[in-house]
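Need tokens for this chain, all 175 residues.
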Amino acid sequence: MVVRDRQQDNSQAGKAPRGNRRDDDWRDDWDDNAALEEEAVDPLSRADAVKMLGERALRPSRMTPGKVVLAQVVVTLLSALAWAVFAREHAPAGWSAFFGGMACFIPSGFFALRLYMSRKHPSVGGLVAGEAIKVFGTMALLVLVIVLYRDLRWVPMLVTFLLALKTYWVALAIR
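Here are the structure tokens for all 175 residues:
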């Protein structure tokens, strides 16, 4: 599928397919079907997008990366408090839950800071690098918690980690 400019010449629409089958026997079916899939598609205008998605979908989001990280911290603290109050072993469960949430919100905080610092010159490569740093930072923090905290309780740690991780979905729904 090719997105074309509205002012592009339509003279290319009647072109014959590339080569013939006798000359290109080494090519597979993917190449044969690729020529058929290259049809021009007009991009949506603002009016078309409003008609299809609604006016609300085109408004900028109020949820910033900083607010998502703050929500992760709040979820972590609430979960750690709940585990510390209601678990059979209060302190180890509470600390395990806190460390599990920390393994999520600390790398997310660095990623949000990186996004904030590069807001003047955003790039896809910067997003990919920041996300890679976040993933490896999360793994490193989880390994540190597992190795260094001797009273680790797995269930509180993992549950709080997943709750903090799923805060992104709640933020996306709030938009």
